[in-house]
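Hi there,

I know you've been waiting on this one. I reran it after we fixed the sequence typo, so this is the corrected version. Both the input and the resulting structure follow.
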Amino acid sequence: MPKGIPFTKMEGIGNDYVYIDARKAAPRALNKLAREISDRHFGVGSDGLILIRKSAKPGVKHRMQMFNSDGSESEMCGNGLRCVAKYLYDRKLERDSEFPIETGAGVLHVKVKGDSKHIARRVTINMGQPRLLRREIPLTGEPDGQVIGLPLSVGGREFKVTCVSMGNPHCVIFLPEPASKELVHGIGPLIENHEWFPRRTNVEFVYRESPTVLQQRTWERGAGETLACGTGASAVCVAANLNGLTGRKVKIKLLGGDLEMHWNEKDGCVYKTGPAREVFTGVWPA
């Protein structure tokens, strides 16, 4: 077997990452590795790199560490976490169907729906409670203020935006028609790097198809447009409800597939359900 770093390529509705089992030992120079392994021409090709590590927190065995394709480390990825849950469940590293995983956004709980062969088919993640205060997202301005349907001028246009953190920052824009590639790629990077957002932000462009169905395109911080964004879908579910566009349960259509979202009124947490798939395994030259 060739020497190198074993990896697994996985995807959750098109949001693809390279996964490395680093429970015993982690590779070095992770920022550089993330850039190289994510390159779609000279590497494996992915939206980023995710390491599966041991957690030091009581009662939690596993930790997810995530890097974007530009090498920057990020707090969380909902689609990535679903794939981590599948990786652990399919390999019987977790035999229970419900278990916690530590992330950069805190400890989150996953629930796996598996088949008779102990293979995960769908995964539900408790994404936690949304954070709406400017200081929590973070945003410049009044620390305890909120941004719900406020105007933001960028690129010669004005958009009404709603800002939410799901452990990472999101800026949600509702549109009267489905977002075009030109809009996402033209306005997305401008908002990502806008002075409002000291740590940059993810940007969601959303069209309401019906009171229960939304269409979403996402410009991800550090990765560009991706086929799906789980934390983004969570932020969109919250933002749509706050703006009176939907109820607390909604289906969100992304370029890579659909997610079922529920902002639970009882505990205030957002629940996200969707598939996860293993694409292939390989060895990255050391």
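Quick highlight: The chain has two domains: 5-128+274-284, 134-268.

Best,
R. S.
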